[in-house]
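Memo to structure team: turn this sequence into structure tokens by end of day. - J.P.
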Amino acid sequence: MTENAVLKLRAMRIARSTRPFLARGNRVIRCQRCLLPKQQCLCDTLQPGTARSRFCLVMFDTEPMKPSNTGRLIADILPDTTAFLWSRTDPPQALIDLCASEEYQPMVVFPASYAGSERQVLSAPPSGKPPLFIMLDGTWTEARKMFRKSPYLDALPVISVDLSRVSAYRLRESHAEDQYCTAEVAIALLDLAGDQPAAKSLGAHFSLFRERYLAGKANHQRSVTAKEPENV
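Reply from structure team:
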């Protein structure tokens, strides 16, 4: 199975690490492609597709390392997805070039309430060029930091998505009911952009990933509990 952009970024991040990254559940034996426990591997279910829309993930430092990351699911379904590690002062030139490309209409995906009054805010992609959705991928605190401290993105419009439902994402705890994981927002964006087949494919992939991730997590917790000595 071909590695996607997030997995390549993960490999690069691991190569430069001076010590192992220990995510929760680090003792679980995982498939190194889908990062699920091997018993829950979903690699044989992957069905990459295409869309007019394109995604660019700007990821906080350790985000590509986390098995719970859902930005990776977008790159599973849409292989032309790009991924970059975030830098406040030294962004990758490839990211700058992509944002300046005449082929796409770039926009930063973020809640409208955080955009300044001078910033153009969109509720749907404009017609014309294919949209390039730039997603800030990290915890909510990290995403806000990236939004505030990425001057090279400040000239781009913001697109804000109102999902108006409680998030299905329970792999990590969110801080509020209106905070959604990266894959959920991407599904809504694909729908808004008219890429319904891709939205459907990503939705099915996310649902299966969530189901198997939580099953593997529950199995691990039962295993750990079974090994604990009884109180005497």
